[in-house]
Input
Amino acid sequence: MDAASGRILYEKDAHTRRLIASTTKLMTALVAVEATEDLEQVVTVKREYQAEGSSMYLGVGEQLTIRELLYGLLLSSGNDAALAIAGGCAGDVETFVGWMNDRAGELGMADTHFANPNGLDHEAHYSTAYDMALLAREVLSREVLMELVSTKSATVAGRSLVNHNKLLWRYEGCTGMKTGYTDAAGRTLVSSARRNGQDLICVTLKDRDDWNDHARLLDYGFKNYPLFPLARAEKRFRTLPITGSLLSQVEVVTASDVVYPLLKGEKVRARITLPNLVSAPVKKGAIAGRLTFLVGEEQVGETYLLYAVDVPENTPEPSLFERLKGILAGDKGPELAVFFPIQA
Output
């Protein structure tokens, strides 16, 4: 998936519900940073936060910040860190899991349901490759999360943590995100990479060769679907005729950049929405219309068209005859001195 546009570049069984293992923790992290104003908030580890599987090895009574727990969650894939984050943020794990499901609904993850914050197998815990890509898009928009998932190693709370995501070392431009594994789920992986200003997301579920498959899929996306500039911000687009002003034309410019990943040979159509005639006054930066781009019948991008300058409302100065006519009619208007030659 192209992250900026959401365009799917390749898919196979993208909407099949599957177990997702520890890639779940991307949602745990997202909900945690959205629910916590201060990531330095301290959580005291309770006995019920200890869990089977991958662990940060938290000790009962130990105190860590939410930020430290997030490192343990996303680098070491700590199941105990997930429970500690959930309990620390929401007061109890069940409430936090409810928040996770609410957030999934907001993101349009229609085939997703969470039963826990760590991804341990459960019949009510599942997602799809497409839904996990939607989640990854949201994670990409969060600077604090991208800093975490792109960290290769860190020393946190006296622990040396190493990121399980080998693509950070193996794939040029990899920026994250999260691995997962259980016997039932198999190997699960959500990855992201950035090249030439383009961010791609790749998701595989139950894939025995995920490192190589992600490298191949990302290479395919960058090679075959490069970003194509459709519009540039503040570029002159055209002029419009204007009435009620000494000027006869007003310039219109594009408001923002528009880029879209295009396959070689793909054609884009532009739909222009603008008035035929403008009446003064107009303000610089005010919306004049819009420019919409389509591939086939699908809209793939849009930018407003803005007036480039202020145009005040001005009417031409009246002629001498028109002014005299007004005075004779009793309309003094502005003071006017008129000199006539007089013959003696």
About this structure: The first strand starts at residue 42 and ends at 44.
